[in-house]
Amino acid sequence: MSDTPAPLSQAVHNPTTRHAIFIVATLNAGAGAAETVRGWCEDVAALVRTVGTRSPQENLSCVCAFGSRAWDTLFGSPRPAALHPFREFGSGERTAAATPGDLLLHIRADSMDLCFELATLLRNRLGDAVTVVDEVQGFRYFDRRAIIGFVDGTENPEGREAVDFTVIGDEDAEFAGGSYVLVQKYLHDMTAWNSLTVESQEGIIGRHKLSNVELDDDIKPSSSHSALTTLEENGQEVKILRDNMPFGRPGAGEFGTYFIGYARSPAPIEQMLENMFVGRPPGNYDRLLDYSRAITGGLFFVPSADLLESLASRAPSAGEAAVAPASAGSAA
Ligand code: HEM
């Protein structure tokens, strides 16, 4: 038995908080930009401590993750075995589309001042090495309801199960302690959604709206969101860990859900997207998508906390750097 302790994960499993900031950035071209981002990796944990210590009861945390092309440009090989650009699903109005993104920051705390301060410090230290392409401030809405009025996050795995479903182990030993994370920003047509009866909405989600109790199997539609996102492999349920947040600007008529899902492989999250956008079987798609549009999509690798810190000294070799694509504006 080896004495080396298992690598420590980043704050993937931290409990859900009242606030979050999601930042997606692209890496600017040039060796200097890559060097800045690598050096920054070493500073993240210290900056979280710097801000979080001032109010420990508010559970400040940050998860940093890298897109596929950015990984090659920044760190070269070895690369996480299952990391690839975001795969698109569906077509036309109902498309899970890929949008540019090389770096994802998932900042959480029970007060927005901590999230805001940390986001500012992390972003300032990145300087002109990156271009921020999306930034969302999410908030908890009543008793953990999504903006569409249903409690969100109920079926998340907890404790040991949450770790087993999200942390890479022996299947990719060099990246053990890491995870994959998929994000999508959704906008909802709340006028159309609110014109449905509560019973119709419950059929679309698969749960009762007020009580959050799951619909009985004999009345739950196979097209319901909860049915299409329930996966089984060899008789066992395969789960992912979500911490979606509502966001919006009522004055501008914007109402959204920032979806974030962690898993130890992109495969289960992609299967859920296929079930939702294409349908299971094809055509039996998620009716929530008749009222919701995904306007961003990115897949990222979350290095373990230990690996994140050591990435500062991991540049691609000269040969790799020569072939690595300039990733400004690249899809994740
Ligand atoms: C369940 C909302 C997108 C995966 C749920 C539930 C709600 C909800 C209200 C029921 C309670 C719960 O268990 O959390 C939303 C909204 C979305 C969205 C508003 C954005 C429009 C997604 C996406 C995925 C996903 C994109 C995966 C790719 C799941 C899973 C469950 C779930 C795995 C639990 C299913 C179960 O075991 O019953 N979602 N969701 N959701 N959702 Fe979503």
From TrEMBL:
Cofactor: heme b
Keywords from the named record: Iron, Metal-binding, Oxidoreductase, Peroxidase
Keyword Oxidoreductase: yes
Listed GO MF terms: peroxidase activity
Ranges of residues in domain Dyp-type peroxidase N-terminal: 10-140
Pfam families: Dyp_perox_C, Dyp_perox_N
Sequence ranges assigned to domain Dyp-type peroxidase C-terminal in this UniProt record: 144-306
InterPro entries: Dimeric_a/b-barrel, Dyp_perox_C, Dyp_perox_N, Dyp_peroxidase
Protein family: Belongs to the DyP-type peroxidase family.
Name of this protein: Dyp-type peroxidase
Species assigned in the record: Achromobacter veterisilvae
